[in-house]
Structures are given as structure tokens and as C-alpha cells.
Design a protein that fits this description.
Elements: H1 4-12, E1 19-29, E2 32-41, E3 54-66, E4 75-86, E5 92-94, H2 108-118, H3 124-130, H4 135-144, E6 159-166, E7 172-178, E8 184-188, H5 193-200, H6 205-209, E9 213-216, H7 222-229, E10 234-237, H8 239-258, H9 266-272, H10 275-279
Helix pairs in contact: 3-4, 8-9
The structure holds zinc ion.
Length: 293
Amino acid sequence: MSSLNDYIKFALDIEDQNIIFSDYSNENISGKIYKIYLAELIRSACPFCRSTNLKHNGHYVSNVRFITADASKPVTIRLRKQRVLCNDCLKRSMAQSNLVNKYCHISNVSKLKVRSALTEDRSMTSIAREHNLSVNTVQRVLTSYSAKFYDDFDRLPEHLAFDEFKGVGKKLHFICLVGDTHKVVQILRTRFKPDILRYFYKFTPKARSMVRTVTMDLNCYYPLIARELFPNAQIVIDRFHMVQMLTRSFNIFRVQIMKQFNKRSREYKLLKSPWKLYLMKYGKLNKTTPYYD
Ligand SMILES: [Zn+2]
């Protein structure tokens, strides 16, 4: 027969054998109704010596924010983590689960949801609202998925890429990626020169001299920053931005010429409808079956 524990675990899609659900209720917390699930997290063996000869030593209670389909009713798992003392190696430990990291109150599945939402074109505020989290938490999730590697200020990748993106309150943030792997090196709250300089000056001169290329769009001060920070780096203007700019100016020029003609004239029509043809690569043009217009 299925127990309440089995049923809740089925509903919440939690598989951890060490989590045992015992009860559920609605709770009014400062005017908002929370769905509360009570659970105990068991420590069955010592993590250090694998012994099962344990002495129980109370619980650490953690209110874990879980995912919910209905943002108006946040789901919280009140997880009582067992604390144990190992009778064999005499070390203390606390029960742990993949559900949530140690001393964290946001479940890992919520973080994953936030991370996938961050890849969509959405504001952090709307993601925070949907998952009943603060904007700061969403921001922390974003930073935590960025490279931790660069806490080390003695090295930098050979190829860097600078760009910016829209974040909270439509403010532009600065982002620096590893050029070849697209791993995030750092995200800064603003894209202003002093902030970027302050961040990169934390790296040693040796680390900064490791950078060989910096790829960027046509932002006016990025090249100045790159030259100041990375003495051995070449500045590469991103192909995408170059092609975009060329295409745009070519189209503006085409329209200017087009407008010199009468709308009913053959010249006007030839400059208007086959516009894609003018942008086509030479290699892709049809050279075998010519036709005349
Ligand atoms: Zn032990």
C-alpha cells in the first residue's frame, strides 16, 4: 500500500530515499498562503567512515523553497536534517541531499528552473516573481552558474569576448566570456569603464599579459579598455557585428538610390523586390541558368 510519504514524493517528483515526508499543511506567513510539507532527512551512515553506528544529535531545520505551478501558492519543504555523531570515528555530520545544498534554502530544482528561465529573453524580475524568489536570488543563481575558476587572479584565458546584455530594470550589464568555449568569466552590474577596469585590475599583470585576443562589438571604449588592460592582446571586432553593420549600410544605400526613381519604374522594382539577391554571397549566385530582367 502506498504511504503518505510515497504519495508526496510522487507528487513532488522527489526520489531521495533518505527523505521521509510525514505531514502537510497550509500556513499563513505574513499574509501569503504557503503549502508546507514536513519531511525528515535521514543520515544512515557516517560520510567519513561509512559506519552505521551513529548517535543522533537533534536536527537542523531548513525551510526549502520548492517549485510550484501556481506562483500565488509558494511550496516550502520543512526539512529536518538529522545531525549525527559517529561512534566509530567520532566525527559529527549532518544529513545531506541532492534536494538542496548545505545551508541553502533554495532547492536545486528551483535553481535549475531559474537557470533555464535565464536563457530565455526574460527579465530577472519576472523570473523572480514566477518562482517566488527575490531578484537577488535570481542574480546569485546566474553568478553561481558562471565560472568559479576565475576566482583565481593569476591566470586568464587566451581569448576573451566582451559584450553586454539587458538585465534588471532594463539596465545593461557587462559580460565577459572565454572566446572559444563561451564560458562566462564575469558579469558586472554595469558596463561602465571604471567598473570594468576595477574588475580586471584584480588580476596580476602576468595574468593580463596571457590574453592574446579580445573580441568585441563596436562599442567605443572597449578597445581602449582592452589596450590598457591586456598589453599583448589583439582587438577583434566580432564578425557578427561587422556583417550586421555592412548589411545595414548597404541596405540604406540601396533604398537611397531606389528612391530617386519613380515607384512604377523598372529600376525601382529591380532595386526593391530582389533585395536578397544583392546580399547573396558570390559563390551562391546562380551562374548556370542566366535570365534577364
Ligand atoms: Zn565515522
